Amino acid sequence: MALDYIFREASPGNNEDIQAITDIYNAAVIAGGSSADLTARTFDQRREWVESHRFPYGVFIIETPDPSREIIGFAALSVFYDRAGYDGVASLAYYIAPEWQGRSAGTFALERLLDEARTRHMRKVCGVIFADNAGSIALMRRFGFTQFGLMPAAATDSTGTMHDMTYWYLDL
């Protein structure tokens, strides 16, 4: 049975939010397999990234429901393409702390992120995922996304592994 996590908007003024986002993202960068960043990001870089997400876009925190409210992940609706004709289309991403992966937190994050996209009147969301990221690909399929592209040997991760990229969309 999945835990009932908490989903809330991140605050660029909340150092705890920014530190957790930095730590969780950097764990993914260092592990490889889910980010094309080759080096860890700094606290200030992550704060600037959160600040860049102006409504209707946003960055969100995933927390445990227990009294400790431990931050275990984050998710984002980002600008898909910076031209007015693409307004209403968002790029989405989510990262879960390694020790919380496999506990339905990714499913919870994606479900709530799609709810946010609908509430914010997005018409379409897109995801770009390494082709060998079986967990994220399974989530795309589970939520009804359509794969619309594959780019072979498109991105290297921090371990030096070259990955094919898959491209997914969902009409809202």
From TrEMBL:
One Pfam entry name: Acetyltransf_1
InterPro entries listed in its UniProt record: Acyl_CoA_acyltransferase, GNAT_dom
UniProt KW keywords: Acyltransferase, Transferase
SUPFAM superfamilies: Acyl-CoA N-acyltransferases (Nat) (SSF55729)
Signal peptide (UniProt feature, chain positions): none
The keyword Repeat appears for this protein: no
Boundaries of every N-acetyltransferase domain copy: 5-172
Coiled coil: none
Name the record gives this protein: GNAT family acetyltransferase
